[in-house]
Write a structure and sequence with these properties.
With 313 residues, the chain is an alpha/beta fold. It has a domain of 216 residues: Rossmann fold, CATH 3.40.50.720. The chain is built from 10 helices and 12 strands. A 6-stranded parallel β-sheet has the order 2-1-3-4-5-10, with helices on both faces. A two-stranded parallel sheet has the order 6-9. The chain has a two-stranded parallel sheet with strand order 7-12. Strand 1, helix 1 and strand 2 form a beta-alpha-beta unit. Helix 6 packs across helix 10. The longest helix has 21 residues. It is globular.
């Protein structure tokens, strides 16, 4: 991104105060973008159309990068299926509609790997996204996000509106959400291992069987992918952002235990769900369309995440 694309651009970043958003902002500023607006929920509730209209009038942007989401792990999805569906759907639909009405030239919508069918062939290819129902524990969230793909394609067809839809893999990295009630798998395991080691506890208990597999994308790589797509990609066909690697959760736990120095037992609560059996993305399209390839070695990324947690929580 060493060019002048971002200079003099006015960009709205919803969710700019969040995990991925903080890295997108850093990279935007490093690329020469100095006119960025970050709506905070205390002033702009993006579920309310009036607040969106007010934001777009106050800040007539060249682009919207929509990262804001109501999101969490399996437990949070099970506890909040209605609000996760409503909040994500209503935010995205109204943001895109009002962006079109306010003549904002481009909208970047961030979807989720949860949008894929539960038993999609691995690695997940973009053309398989409609071939089945998502994994049940996070289907309301995944479907709400997937509706933004439908909206993007419909608006391009009817109005010629330029919006894109990206499907990032599970993210991890420094500044992640480590709250037990809503964290994803990597921060949840890091927290349990570090806290158990500090307390001298002999065991930790984790959900499921450990047999499910996941791919993970380091947050700085994800931010770079989002900005490359924002700069270079102008189609409504969905694009995966990820890596080709896949790891079983039980193997992930062993790596995190080693890196944190936790030597106790690992107990699996098999009454709890594993979630989707496998998640791994085909990344051919992102490389072809806008030159994106992840650069961070998985274990190096985990070390940085663990170090951040130990030094900041």
């Amino acid at each position: 991104m060493a060019n002048d694309f971002w200079k003099n651009k006015k960009v709205i970043v919803t969710g700019g105060a969040g995990f991925l958003g903080s890295f997108v902002l850093e990279q935007l500023r490093a690329s020469g973008c100095n006119d960025i607006f970050i709506p905070i929920i205390e002033e702009y509730d993006l579920r309310r159309e009036a607040d969106i209209i007010r934001m777009y009038r106050q800040f007539p942007a060249d682009m919207v990068i929509h990262l804001a989401a109501a999101v969490g792990g399996i437990g949070a999805n099970q506890a909040n299926p209605g609000s996760f569906f409503y909040d994500n759907l209503i935010m995205g639909i109204q943001l895109i509609e009002q962006a079109r009405l306010h003549n904002i030239p481009k909208f970047v919508a961030i979807g989720t790997v949860c949008a894929y069918p539960k038993y999609a062939p691995v690695p997940f290819k973009e053309e398989d996204i409609w071939n089945g129902y998502p994994e049940e524990t996070n289907a309301p969230y995944g479907l709400a996000k997937k509706m933004l793909l439908v909206q993007s394609q419909a608006y391009r067809q009817q109005y010629g509106y330029n919006s894109i839809f990206l499907l990032p893999l599970n993210l991890y990295g420094p500044r992640d959400n480590f709250r037990p009630d809503s964290s994803h798998v990597i921060p949840a395991i890091i927290k349990k291992c570090v806290e158990a080691k500090r307390a001298g506890e002999g065991s930790i208990t984790l959900w499921g069987t450990g047999s499910a597999s996941r791919g993970f994308l380091y947050v700085e790589d994800a931010a770079r992918g989002v900005l490359l797509a924002a700069e270079r990609y102008n189609k409504s066909d969905p694009v995966n952002l990820g890596t080709p690697q896949e790891i079983k959760v039980k193997d992930l736990v062993e790596i995190i235990a080693r890196l944190t120095g936790y030597k106790g037992a690992i107990v699996w609560d098999k009454t709890k769900p594993d979630g989707q059996p496998r998640r791994c993305l085909d990344i051919t399209k992102a490389k072809k369309e806008f030159g994106f390839l992840a650069q961070t070695d998985f274990e190096s990324g985990l070390k940085k995440t663990i170090d951040w947690y130990i030094n900041n929580i």
